[in-house]
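Self-study notes.
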Amino acid sequence: MIRKDVTFILLTLAGLASVFFFMMQNTRFESNLISCMNDEGSFQITYKKLKLDMLVSFEKSNEKVTTFKIKTLDGENLHFENQVSKYKINLDKKIAIETRSGEKTIYKCSLKSFKM
């Protein structure tokens, strides 16, 4: 017969392994950061998930942080407006285009994800 203390240790280890397995399957917090920059300036977008009507935090260099809802999301393209500019971000190519007063500015972007 197996001793009680060995049985208890094995059951405890099996219980801990199952708890860790289920914790890894369920992401409780997720944050994504898109940073776009070029020679003239930069901006950052922070979001939890990309869905229509989700709130996104937008921060452009030398401007205050604003929040807005995602206006259009089609495939790999994200469209939104901020004050006088319209933005289009291609998430696959990691390129952003800002249109302001008919002028287009192109940014190179990077994506960082944090999950806990």
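Second protein, same conventions, sequence then structure:
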Amino acid sequence: MSSPEDKYGLLPRISESIAEKILAEVSDFASFMKHDPDGAKRSVESDVEWLKENKGFLGNAVEASVDASLDLYSETLTHKEWVELRTFLLKGVLLMIQMINEALKKQAID
């Protein structure tokens, strides 16, 4: 089994300002989901498609990790609940990737 250092050692440090920016997006996205769930879903799906087209298998990995988890609960969730939860989970993974990307950009500038 790999150590945490092996798994995460090359990741950049995340500054407080980057973390706060992403956390603000979490709140904004929750509001977006409340007022326009279809628009929020389209936005997330668009981002995943971009990753698939531009970053190798990253988009597929994002979807697979979320869908595999949701499959464990497919019997207990309504279709609407499944779609909403999938959208929130995908957005969460996308925001983590975005946070790493922001830190890498900052690192390149410094």
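Instructor comment on the second fold: The radius of gyration is 16 Å.
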